[in-house]
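Structure tokens
________________
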Amino acid sequence: MPRQDRLAAAGPAVLIPVNRLDRAKGRLAALLAPEERAGLVRRTLATVLEATAGAGLEAVVLSADAGLRASLPAGTRALAERPDAEGLSAQLERAAAALARAELLILHADLPLATAGALRDFVGQAPPAPSATLARSADGGTNALLLRPPGRFALAYGPGSADRHEAAARASGMAVRHADAPALALDLDTPADARRLLATPAGRATAAGRYLAVIGVEGRDAFRAGD
């Protein structure tokens, strides 16, 4: 069986939460207009979905944005957010329960450097079940979280969530691995993140990097200033 087929058969489902496009990336408001923020989200989501498909994993996009859900590529499953669940963590827990998978990878949609190889390597670093494997963001958030199985502890997304997830996973008896995953470490939340992306040739060559360069963010005051 080809490697990608084996991954699809045995690997985790990938749950990708995406905010409504009209509310996306509020922390980038000083740098990008609303329609530009929506354009950036579409490009990073496309990158993440391409990486997921290339790794042979099933993508499930969770969003309250009906237009976004309708525009997803063929073969990508969509879930609507639940009106009775408040906040990202609660929405993800409801979605995880609905999917009922033994393995679940929760992956942010704003990872411009994500590749199929990076996802395969991340999954390959995970300990056997019961375990939780994390990729940290620069602010200590959780850009990727592989749960074998999900549902053993309460999710706690936000800045500093990697430490909270680690503590909760250990308290529930799970092994924890902080994966070496540089391609999953950069998310695009702030002007500083945009500067980091555009500071390297590899970052500039990504879909998000090309978009930010074309719309001229490097000439804007918010890009040149600190956060």
About this structure: The radius of gyration is 17 Å. The mean pLDDT is 94.
